[in-house]
Specification:
alpha/beta; three-stranded parallel β-sheet
Amino acid sequence: VRVVSARTAFETADCKSPLEWKVLAFEAEVARSCGAAALLDHAKRQNIHSFGDSTSEREALLRTAAGAPNCRAKVVKFVDHPDIAQLLKQHALVSRSLDRIAQHDDNLDLSIDCS
């Protein structure tokens, strides 16, 4: 698993927005992992997944995928500031659903509500 800090990689005096850092980070990772040729090959779809509680990360992935016609965004937005019980529920739900999320044949934008 590759860990990328969007802020460390892309924050500058001209780029102070977390959303912008994350869009740039997703664009760089999609290009690095998929390659430009794969993004243009209509026969080969690319799935890009995001699991987390950041609204800007969710929005950044959706924007990145919209600009790459062969990319499918798979976003699972976790609860903001969960307690331990909510965190456990979220992870159990994702563990049970990961295959279905990955195999879904389109974009997917889910938000978990543990109330």
